[in-house]
Amino acid sequence: MRLVRRPFFWIIAAVIATFALAPTYGNNVELREGLLLATVYIILASNLNMMLGYAGYVNFGGIVFFGLGGYFCVWLMSAFGWPLVAATLTGGVAVSALALLFGLGILRLRGAYFALATVGVNEAVMAFVTNFGPWGGSTGIYLSPALFGPLGGPAKALWTIYYLLVGVMGLSLYLSYTVKSSKFGLGLLAIGQNEDAASVLGVPTPRYKAAVYSLSAFLPAIAGGLYFFKGAFIQPPDAFDLQLSTETIVIAMLGGQGTVTGPALGAYLYEELRGWLLTSPTFSNFQLVIAGGLLLVIVLFAPGGLMGLIYRRWPRLRRILE
Amino acid sequence: MSALLEVAGLSKRFGGVQAVDSLSFAVEEGSILGLIGPNGAGKSTVFNLINGVIPPDEGRVRFRGADVTGAPPYRVARHGLARTNQIVQPFMTMTVLENCIVGACFGRENLPLSSARETAREAATLVGLEDRLETLASQLTIAGKKRLELARALAARPTLLLLDEVLAGLNPTEVERMIGTLRTIRARGVSILMIEHLMQAIMSLSDRIVVLNTGTKLAEGLPAEVAADPQVIEAYLGDPGLAGTLREAGR
Q1: Which helix (H) or strand (E) holds B28?
Q2: A281, part of any domain
Q3: What is the pLDDT of residues B3-32, one digit of tens each?
Q4: Which of B81, B102, B161 best tests the A interface by mutation, with the highest count of A CBs <10 A?
Q5: Distances (CA, A) of B94 to A53, A252, B108
Q6: Each residue of B89-103: pLDDT tens digit?
Q7: B-chain residues within 8 Å CB-CB of A196?
Q8: ipTM at complex level
Q9: Can you give the pTM of this predicted structure?
Q10: Which residue of A182, A183, A193 is in closest CB contact with B92?
Q11: B113–A193: do the CB atoms touch at under 8 Å?
């Protein structure tokens, strides 16, 4: 495999190993919970980045994939007794297919109109689910603790879910890298820079945009399934939380949109910052104030994010970190 | 010789303006056809109608025997028609080589990424950008960006090249260089349909000329014939200097 010779492959491998081993050592549950949130952030940001950073489309409602994935998984498990892996994978495929449909509808729009439409998709789906009986309407779905049985009881199940999320995080980074270094990725980057010029040069823009929108839904949906299974509970306001969507955009831009490493770096730093601010008793959700400020600073002074600054200082790193 | 591109009865209206009015012409294989006309005559609109940037209200566009009327630009590009834009539109944060790779990857030959690199390099060399391959497009001069626009189109290995004022904004030395490049391209068997305001240049490059005025065809013929046509001179009369240049170039 050619990939094995790329330094980036080893960086992903090292990150996964660190995430997998650090909390295992000494059975550190507190560290695991912090890192678990970081994996979710990395998965969301890195998949969002394929839309935002590659194709140049601001998806404000990306969280709809996460929430729908959660619903599919929790519903399949509670109503039909499906095993976890089958339920999450089915959720991923179903949400990707739905995203393709949404995408064909809203990807005719550009710029701010597209961004607003993505918020609309999220709100519409939330309104639908809130009134959808089989999914518990506004009260949501509770999972019976018995469902943790096949995974060796709740305590062990939490570790399994964590490892699965670390795996999905690795896949997200790998996907992000593979797409970027492919012809498909080149087409997306061209669309992101100048869609009309790309089309004139032969890039099949509608097909590519729909494909990346659908692709960027798959792993977040799987992460949603794992995440809400872990909580054993899902309800509309948690599943379709626009705040998390906005945070994801800040994360991708903080790390450096369009780069593979950036969203991961941004997610980790943001999660650390959030954890640190949460311990402050004076403010709840103070990270949002910081996030807003950060976004302003990034947009005004460092549109390339942290990776943009790093690459400007050491251009040769671009080849290694991607 | 057979017609590579055939335009028949093409019309386009923008609100109250008839931008193009039942226009017909053909580009023969291996030839250079010049499209001239005063500002606002509808030349760029004709390009946009041909490569599908905007669909025509009426009329047909046939390219290499296939009807491509109203087909989206990326499909027309795949057929082997490449174009440059009047206002250059490079992918600013990509390098010169990457810009050309996009052209090669999605052009007529639909190359995979691995072999597109070589084709892209050739195209950049042909326009004289071979020592700028790793430069970001945003760092090129205007002349450089114009060359890049041409290289990107060439990397697609087109059978027909639509050039929208590639000489505009260049200084005399750069114009000379560009004309040389265009001759080389033509010698390689690429047919060209070009819009140009620099009369000497287009008169000497073109095999035939089509003159457009207020969206209709005013005249068509050999450069010398067109330059001597009283109607053409009249269309340009708002600018007597230009009419003089036309006659001059025709001789």
Answers
A1: strand B17-28
A2: no
A3: 899 999 999 999 989 999 999 999 999 999
A4: B102
A5: 14, 20, 22
A6: 999 989 999 999 999
A7: 53, 89
A8: 0.89
A9: 0.90
A10: A193
A11: no
